[in-house]
Request: fold
Amino acid sequence: MRWLDALTLCLCLAAAGCTSGASDMMDGVGHPPRFQDTDPQDFAGRTPHRHDVHGIDLSKWNGDVDWASVRKSGVSFAFMKATEGGDRLDARFHEYWRGARAAGVHYAPYHFFYFCTPADIQADWFIANVPKDAVMLPPVLDAEWNPTSKTCRFRPEPPVVRQEMQRFMDRIEAHYGKRPLIYTTVDFHRENLEGHFQNHLFWVRAVSQHPSEIYPARNWAFWQYTSTGVVPGIDVPTDINVFSGTQKNWNAWVAAVSK
Reply:
C-alpha cells in the first residue's frame, strides 16, 4: 500500500467514525487494556473505549517509564516530545524512543512549534536532534497556542501561521520521507486550520466532547481523549489517544508508513 493510499484510508475511516464495534478495548493481541482514567467522559455515548487501538503521548514530565508494563497494559503507540522551537530538546526523548522500540510499541517524535522562531531554524533543530531511527511512525507537528509561555505569546495572522507550518513540514518530509501528522487543539484549529492541510493526517485534542462536535468537517486519524489516564508503568497522569480505525486498518497503515 502506497503512502497516499494509506492516507486516504485513514481519512475515510475517520470521516465514517469507524470503530470495531467491540464492547471492550483491545490492544491488538487479544487482551483488554488495563489502563484507566481518573476523570472519564461519556462523550455522548461515543466513547473512545470502542476503538481497537490505543496509545499515549508523553514528555519528560512523565518521568520514568517501564515500557514493558506500558505495552502489556494495552498501549500500541506512543507519541513523544522531541524538540521545541529552535533550541530545546526534551531530556527524555532518546531514552523514551529506544525504550518504546525495545518493548514493541510503535513510536513517533513530535515538535512543539514556537511562533517566535522561523520555521527553517526549527526544522534544522529537529533534524539535528532526531535520528531517522527515532521516526518509526510519521513525525508530528504540535501546533497550538501557548498562553502561559514566558518567552513567546506572539500569535501571527492565520496565513502566516499556515505558511510557517507548511515550511516546517516540507523540510521534515523531505528529510525523513514521511509526511508529518498535525496535532492541534480546538481553538487553534478554529482560528487557523479549518479547511486547510487536507493532505495531512490530524491528531486532535478533545477531552470533553467528541471530535465530530468541535472539529467541523475535519477528518481525524488520532484522538487525544484524556490527560488524566492511569497507565501501568507510568507513575503520573498520562495522555491517552485512540486511532480512528480498526486493528486491521492500523496494521495496514503501520506497514505502509514504517518502511
